[in-house]
């Protein structure tokens, strides 16, 4: 394998994830305007936000399995073409039902790419580099929203939410072309073959992997984490607008700050997971989730809007920071020939949490008239996720090190 290939692959999937989140988060930025113009209550708009996760969850395991079977590249070309079509269609909806249906289809289209991207990281990067590689790749999860917040506000004020969705459909088509020309052909065959060849033959069956208690601990932990993540991601702009009374013109900058902090967290904890705490990644992840919970609690209880933005930014630093270590653990758990499918399995659990989070937070906001219940719900989910990773550390499942010996996570 050409050593430069892995950096080409990393750049391409980073750019794809960046565009992925541009198109995913624009709905959250437009939420206050769309709720008003389409007469959608917060509880129902929570269903709209959750509709994405429903489609995304359904596509996870099939998308990963297709990447294992036919190669990741083809999935990474088809997926952005499809999701861009549905992004553009969002600009033409005129009712709650139409919006929910389009978001389900949009989520399914984006879901096809996730397992394929993680498969490429597992194939091209050795175990001790994956936490940093995942952190770099997943920094797009934070940079995308940070970029789209002010851009979406500009579109909203100049061409309306309908025009925003139509214009933001274009980058996905560009990414499909770039991936076609840049990612090496038949990349699935250019894997780090030594790790795969040394894997026990019986581990290559997906059903055996899902029978491991460690697999379900990660599944449940990632589901709980995504309750907090999607509650945060889906409702933060509305919280700043409706509860902290930040005006639309200032909302773009205010909403981008937590994502910029999250970008820093991605690189910091990705580096820690690869270089400093490689042997204790589960402890690191649990600590990250606990710190996020504390930051969310502080955010809601401070007196001023400025202080709440600082609190949300600190929460974003930790919330996003856990992605790199988590996915390095997932990839180390998985036989090479099942990385796409198992990544889809774990992310399916995450999207189950992502499906219920916006609905429950929206319902709590509608019933109570405040965001108190929503914040407590997210904090409880983070505590549950931290407990799962503590349990995983206690189980002491062995991981290969860069020297080939066995260590605990």
UniProtKB/TrEMBL annotation:
Residues forming the Major facilitator superfamily (MFS) profile domain are 9-398
GO CC, alphabetical: membrane
List, alphabetically, the InterPro entries matched: MFS (IPR011701), MFS_dom (IPR020846), MFS_Na/Anion_cotransporter (IPR050382), MFS_trans_sf (IPR036259)
Q: Please provide the record's keywords in A-Z order.
A: Membrane, Transmembrane, Transmembrane helix
Q: Where are the transmembrane segments?
A: 43-61, 81-106, 136-157, 163-183, 215-233, 253-272, 284-303, 309-330, 342-365, 371-392
Query: Which PROSITE patterns would you find in this protein's record?
Result: MFS
Gene3D superfamilies per UniProt = MFS general substrate transporter like domains
The subcellular location is: Membrane
Its placement in the membrane is given as: Multi-pass membrane protein
- Tagged with keyword Transmembrane: yes
Signal peptide positions are none
> Quick one: where is this thing mainly located?
membrane
* GO molecular function terms noted in the UniProt entry: transmembrane transporter activity
Please give the name of this protein. Answer: MFS transporter
Name the species this protein comes from. Paraburkholderia polaris
């Amino acid at each position: 394998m050409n050593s430069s290939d892995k950096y080409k692959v990393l750049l391409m999937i980073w750019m794809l994830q960046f565009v992925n989140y541009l198109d995913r988060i624009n709905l959250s930025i437009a939420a206050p305007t769309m709720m008003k113009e389409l007469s959608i209550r917060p509880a129902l708009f929570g269903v709209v936000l959750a509709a994405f996760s429903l489609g995304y969850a359904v596509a996870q395991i099939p998308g990963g399995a297709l990447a294992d079977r036919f190669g990741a590249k083809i999935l990474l070309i088809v997926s952005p073409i499809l999701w861009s079509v549905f992004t553009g269609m969002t600009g033409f909806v005129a009712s709650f039902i139409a919006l929910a249906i389009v978001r389900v289809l949009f989520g399914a289209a984006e879901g096809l790419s996730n397992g394929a991207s993680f498969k490429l990281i597992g194939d091209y990067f050795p175990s001790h580099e994956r936490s940093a590689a995942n952190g770099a790749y997943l920094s797009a999860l934070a940079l995308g929203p940070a970029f789209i917040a002010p851009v979406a506000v500009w579109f909203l004020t100049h061409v309306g939410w309908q025009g925003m969705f139509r214009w933001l459909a274009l980058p996905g088509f560009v990414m499909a072309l770039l991936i076609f020309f840049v990612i090496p052909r038949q990349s699935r065959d250019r894997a780090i073959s030594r790790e795969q060849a040394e894997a026990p033959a019986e581990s290559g069956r997906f059903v055996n992997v899902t029978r491991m208690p460690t697999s379900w601990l990660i599944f449940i932990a990632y589901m709980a984490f995504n309750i907090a993540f999607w509650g945060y991601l889906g409702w933060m702009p509305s919280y700043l607008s409706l509860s902290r009374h930040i005006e639309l013109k200032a909302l773009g900058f205010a909403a981008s700050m937590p994502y910029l902090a999250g970008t820093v967290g991605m690189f910091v904890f990705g580096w820690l997971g690869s270089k400093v705490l490689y042997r204790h990644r589960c402890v690191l992840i649990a600590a990250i989730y606990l710190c996020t919970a504390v930051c969310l609690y502080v955010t809601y209880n401070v007196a001023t809007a400025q202080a709440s933005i600082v609190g949300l930014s600190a929460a974003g630093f930790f919330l996003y920071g856990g992605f790199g270590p988590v996915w390095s653990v997932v990839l180390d758990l998985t036989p090479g020939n099942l990385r796409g499918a198992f990544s889809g399995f774990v992310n399916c659990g995450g999207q189950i949490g992502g499906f219920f989070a916006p609905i429950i937070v929206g319902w709590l906001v509608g019933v109570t008239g405040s965001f108190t219940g929503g914040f407590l719900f997210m904090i409880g989910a983070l505590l549950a996720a931290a407990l799962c990773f503590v349990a995983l550390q206690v189980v002491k499942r062995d991981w290969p090190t860069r020297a080939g010996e066995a260590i605990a996570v």
